[in-house]
Amino acid sequence: MRDDHRTGTDPDAVTLGRIETEIALLMRLGEATRRATGTAEHRVLDRAAYVILRHLDKAGPQNVSALAARLNLDGSTVTRQVSALQRDGLIARTPDPADGRGTVISPTPAGLQRMAAVRAARTRLYGEILADWTGDDRDTLADLLHRLNEALDARNRRR
Amino acid sequence: MRDDHRTGTDPDAVTLGRIETEIALLMRLGEATRRATGTAEHRVLDRAAYVILRHLDKAGPQNVSALAARLNLDGSTVTRQVSALQRDGLIARTPDPADGRGTVISPTPAGLQRMAAVRAARTRLYGEILADWTGDDRDTLADLLHRLNEALDARNRRR
DNA sequence: CAGATTTACCTGTAAGATACAGCTATCTGT
DNA sequence: ACAGATAGCTGTATCTTACAGGTAAATCTG
After folding, report:
1. Among B36, B68, B123, B145, which is least packed by CB within 10 angstroms?
2. What is the pTM of this model?
3. Which of the nucleotides lies closest to A39 (Cα–C1')?
4. Smallest CA–C1' separation from B66: which nucleotide?
5. What are the residues facing A106 on neighbouring strands?
6. Is the CB of B101 under 7 A from strand D?
């Protein structure tokens, strides 16, 4: 199963090569899965909208810059995405009382509901996909992914 | 740390919710990382080009349709990506001797070299990011990601 | 084997995500 | 109070991708 013949013989490098392979694959499969799930019947939320609503739900209302920084996106990107979300009634913009330049973005009940529906659908999907995994393996996967994300995030934030 | 207050109390659902969260995050961070690494100095390979070259390297020369099916992409998408790769001298098209409609896509030495360079850079990057992980944890991560991808792929392929 | 169907690939068109550059309004430190 | 930083927006451009429709080749069917 190893396809790392050109990475060298260092076992550490082999493992890192495998991780690289699997993450690249996961990105592709995740995209395909998202496309297959979301777009088909629901036409509910595009990728960015979901992430923004998730973040607003978790971290509370905040302005565009904070969102952009947190999501590693350009401010202009978030501006447009927020505009679309507002058009669809999924978030609300209010002037920031503490800063005349800023606007605070909050999810609307409709937005939270839409987000929760997508989340539930995806969670259900992972339940199907991982149906034959042990609870331990699922826990370990969740833990390791969490640590991986923390490490990636720390690295991105440092640069 | 749990943010699954609205997913219910079933511990299984909690874990699945965490997995969903972490995968969504990883997709975003992975994108950001790719953008930060690849585009900056090298301007080497965009995402699709890398995936196509990886696949050609692993699975051998094949035609556009096979690539599209394997990568879960529309044929027209692969056609264009292959055209760009050909323009840049990274793949070669030859008429399929067994099928007058088809063209076989093969990586060129330049393409393989470019791909290997990106791969090495990413592997190095993961080495930095996971510098303080134990070898065991890295192995486990690689294994679980592999299994996750197999499960996702099986599911995508079934539909 | 002739006509119908399927397949492989390409092109036109369109949409979404994202970045960068440049603009205005506002804020902050000295 | 002014210079510089910051927040957000708009214009423009690129990349990725899909769907619809077209042509040519292969395959099936009676």
Report:
1. B36
2. 0.82
3. D18
4. C8
5. A92
6. yes
**Is A109 touching B (CB cutoff 8 A)?**
no
Residue A135 contacts B where some CB pair is shorter than 8 Å: yes
Cβ-Cβ contacts under 8 Å for A134 (sequence gap 6 or more): none
CB of A116 within 8 A of CB of B109? no
Q: Distance between CA atoms of A31 and A28, rounded to whole angstroms?
A: 5
The whole-number pLDDT of residue A38 equals 54
pLDDT digits (tens, 9 = 90+) for B45-100: 677 788 899 999 999 999 999 999 998 899 999 999 999 999 999 999 999 999 99
Q: Do A25 and B146 form a contact (C-beta atoms < 8 A)?
A: no
Contacts of B135 in chain A (CB under 8 A): 11-12, 15
| Three-class DSSP category at A100 | coil
List Cα–Cα distances, B78 to B51, B135, B157, in angstroms.
Answer: 11, 37, 18
pLDDT digits (tens, 9 = 90+) for A146-156: 999 989 888 87
Please give the distance of CA B149 from its chain centroid, rounded to a whole number: 11
Q: Which helix or strand (DSSP H or E) is residue B106 part of?
A: strand B103-107
Q: Which position has the token pair 């070259």? A: B53
Q: Are A112 and A57 in contact (CB under 8 A)?
A: yes
Residue of B nearest to A14 (CA): B123
Q: Give A79 CA → D8 C1' in Å.
A: 7
Task: Name the residue in chain B with its Cα closest to that of A24.
Answer: B51
Tell me the residue type at A52.
Answer: I
State the smallest CA–CA distance between residue B81 and chain A in angstroms.
15
Q: Evaluate if the CB of A65 falls below 7 Å from strand D.
A: yes
